Amino acid sequence: MISTAPAFPALLHYEVAHRILTGYMSYYYRFKLITKRARIRFETRDWHGTQADARSRITLYREEVAETTRQLDELMEARHADPAFWKKVRDAFAEDIAHFNTRNIAETFFNSVYRHAYGIGADREVMFVVRTGSYREYGGISPITHTLDLGDRTLRETVRAVLDHYPFEAEWDDRERDIELVADRWETFIQTHGGPAPSDRLEVLHAVFYRNKTAYIVGRFSKGNEVHPFIMPLLHPANRGILIDALLLEADQVVSIFSYHRSYFLADISIPSEMVDFLQTFMPSKRVSELYNAIGFEKHGKTVFYRELLRYFSNTDPELDPFVAAPGIAGMVMYVFTTQGMNMVFKVIRDHFAPPKQVTAATVKERYDLVKRHDRVGRMADSYLFEKLSLPLQRFSAECLRELQETAPSKVEIRDDCVLISHVYVEKQMTPLNLYLQTADEAMAQKALRDYGRAIKQLAAANIFPGDLLLKNFGVTRVNRVVFYDYDEIELVTDCNFRHIPEPRTPEEEMASQPWYYVGPHDIFPEEFPGFLMRSGPYLTYLREQHGEIFDADFWNDIKRRLLDGEIMDVFPYRTGHRFLQ
User: Fold this and answer.
1) Catalytic amino acids?
2) CA–CA separation, 231 vs 219, rounded Å?
3) Which residues does the UniProt record annotate as the domain Isocitrate dehydrogenase kinase/phosphatase (AceK) regulatory (predicted)?
4) 167 shares a domain with 276
5) Alpha helices, DSSP H only, in 129-271?
6) How far apart are CA 391 and CA 389, in angstroms?
7) Of 283, 317, 422, 430, which residue is most buried, by most CB within 10 angstroms?
8) Comparing C-alpha atoms, which of 550, 364, 366 is closest to residue 459?
9) pTM of the entire predicted model
10) Is residue 578 predicted with pLDDT exceeding 80?
11) For the chain, what is the domain count?
12) Distances from the Cα of 344 to the Cα of 396, 419, 455, angstroms
């Protein structure tokens, strides 16, 4: 075999840096290729292709990291773990990417390769743990938006000019009708915000955001000192042309579309940091890390989140804000802890599960990975997986540290002044639904129960059966949206066997404490759900009135049949009342 080692060993560090850079460029090229073909899939209604692309883009990063590591093994013949050598590699890599418009994402790729090769945590001496400058990459030459001054034209002319920037290779259903609908709703919005003014301005992103069966035109409407989002969801229904489904102008509607609980967008973006800057102008409550996630750079979002975490630790008092057990009923599979000011939870798989849990740690990991790759339809929490995460020892309350060591000793190690956790998921914190209902007034409780039922139906439409429908496994977000977050028992709807409970044939069968009929491993009896969810009372009665079909096997079997037939069901990330043509 011909050696791939460099002819000049003194330049090995440069060769290694170049191989990592080549791996990054391959990743970024393939990433861009996937996002560029999203428009073609929308135009041709290739919804299965869109979903396949979304899944493949998530696995793309780890594939390129693994391949780059393999190439480094061939190049170096034996891995050089010497920190001095890797500092030289990092410096050579930093020099090559100094003027990249995706420099920080390239730095994240370098970190991933190094960690994959040596299986260690964050090493400040070798990796780009602390950003090399602003989180922003090298600035672009041309703007990422086109700007329209509303004082120069009518609203209908403005909407028409916006659409002219997106020449889809497909017919419109009725373009002029949609222009009228958008202009009328926009005019109403402007009148309720002080009326038109000569300085009113619209900035619309060149990039279209694609997800599932919808394309989103995204921009911002500037009125005086106020900035409002501007989003037009476009559909391409069967046997019809492209149409505008809604106009969204309220911040809460837009935050929901860019939610942490939804799948990542496919969007052709040249300079991600400029896109993040733009989006944050009308979503200031979103962390920078969340916005990188939303546009598909999940690994870099994780890097940014880790930096946010380090800043939080350095700027807060550990005695006033320690890690404590998360509120709610303790889970049998996960130990969950949190810190009050960060609004995040840390979930560690226990070493042993109490009966009746029969899953294994490997199964739990597989199901978290399934959720990462699946369409979350705004109803499943996204999470960052950290391996070998080091947290300050002084941050842990005595009770939290003791519970962590007792429940997951194989995953926890104390080193000097740090607690090293080998495998931990980090998610947005929510109020468990069971706790929320204890303090909510009747109107808020009923709203939460309605949304709980909708969440179950929307998960079913995405081919997810939660397995355990207990209220404690669902959370209520800041905007009062119900989201599922306990994945150890989820299954695909198409893998389940939904059955009606057979009628007893004798009095003895009717009085039996155990089922008198055969129950297979994937058999599910929806009629039994109410008894597990809550005691009889007004809440259960209300849930039955609003969503009684979720307790009927026929509902689930109908969903299953449609999924097996290949149907991709519509789940809209905005309220039905906002749609123009229902």
Assistant:
1) 382
2) 6
3) 17-316
4) yes
5) 155-164, 175-191, 251-257
6) 6
7) 430
8) 550
9) 0.91
10) yes
11) 4
12) 15, 18, 22
